[in-house]
């Protein structure tokens, strides 16, 4: 689990092809690595990866074909800048929101413009996850915990406002129209939907169990 508060901007130093997928070598920038061990999780642009090799200023992680196809990691190249966050601990301040590191879909930056000292971005979300995005709710974009300012009901797009500090401390200042970004919706919305689905299923099973031969006869379905 993560908080969505980016701890460092890293960069890709190597992409090693391995049987159809890749091993990604990431320079960690200012990320403190002294407490990271093999097998620990580090989010790269919001994607939870497992460290399989470590040095003082880098780590290596395997990236599967599935992850390459469903996230923006497949479009990285040597020198690409990435948002980094280590997995949270019980001592970590939860400054953002609960983030799993499991990307729900790829969004596309539609536009950006100045909004005072901030930048306002319009992001188009895949139709399958747009229903989970709520005005003033939480969303994760490339690992950054953000608040949705506005949703556009006529499309699958939403707006976010990025303050100067976030622009400086993340890769978001490089976003332009057409940039692909990793989206993770709020976990609460996901679990609420599953809870409602479970209750509906339970209700249908109860109803099915109450349909007996005598019930059918009493209601004219059998002779």
Task: Annotate the secondary structure layout.
Layout: E1 8-18, E2 21-27, E3 41-44, E4 47-55, E5 58-63, H1 65-70, E6 81-86, E7 105-115, E8 118-124, H2 127-130, E9 138-141, E10 144-147, E11 150-151, E12 157-162, H3 164-169, E13 180-185, H4 187-209, H5 213-218
Antiparallel strand pairs: 1-2, 1-6, 2-5, 3-4, 3-6, 4-5, 7-8, 7-13, 8-12, 9-10, 9-13, 11-12
According to CATH, what is the topology of the largest domain? Elongation Factor Tu (Ef-tu), domain 3
| Structure classification | alpha+beta
Mean pLDDT: 90
What is the annotated CATH architecture of the largest domain? Beta Barrel
Quickly describe the structure.
With 223 residues, the chain is of the alpha+beta class.
Describe the 3D structure.
- The chain has 223 residues and is of the alpha+beta class.
- The strands form 2 sheets. It has a 7-stranded antiparallel β-sheet with strand order 10-9-13-7-8-12-11. A 6-stranded antiparallel beta barrel has the order 1-2-5-4-3-6.
- The longest helix has 23 residues.
- The protein is built from 5 helices and 13 strands.
- The N and C termini lie far apart (60 Å).
- The protein folds into 3 domains: 79 residues, Beta Barrel (Elongation Factor Tu (Ef-tu), domain 3); 81 residues, Elongation Factor Tu (Ef-tu), domain 3, CATH 2.40.30; 33 residues.
């Amino acid at each position: 689990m993560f908080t969505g508060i980016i701890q460092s901007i890293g960069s890709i130093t190597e992409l090693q092809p391995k049987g159809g997928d890749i091993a990604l070598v990431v320079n960690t920038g200012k990320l403190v690595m002294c407490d990271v061990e093999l097998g620990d999780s580090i989010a790269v642009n919001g994607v939870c990866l497992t460290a399989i090799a470590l040095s003082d200023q880098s780590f290596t992680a395997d990236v599967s074909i599935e992850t390459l196809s469903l996230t923006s990691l497949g479009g990285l190249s040597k020198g690409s800048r990435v948002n980094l966050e280590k997995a949270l601990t019980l001592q970590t301040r939860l400054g953002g929101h609960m983030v799993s590191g499991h990307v729900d879909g790829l969004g596309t930056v539609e536009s950006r413009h100045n909004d005072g000292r901030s930048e306002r971005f319009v992001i188009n979300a895949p139709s399958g996850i747009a229903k989970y995005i709520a005005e003033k709710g939480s969303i994760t974009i490339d690992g950054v915990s953000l608040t949705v300012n506005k949703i556009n009901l006529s499309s699958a797009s939403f707006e976010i406002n990025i303050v100067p500090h976030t622009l400086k401390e993340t890769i978001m200042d490089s976003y332009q129209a057409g940039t692909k970004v990793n989206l993770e919706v709020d976990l609460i919305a996901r679990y609420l939907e599953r809870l409602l689905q479970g209750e509906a299923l339970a209700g249908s099973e109860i109803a099915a169990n109450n349909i007996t031969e005598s019930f059918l006869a009493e209601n004219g379905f059998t002779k």
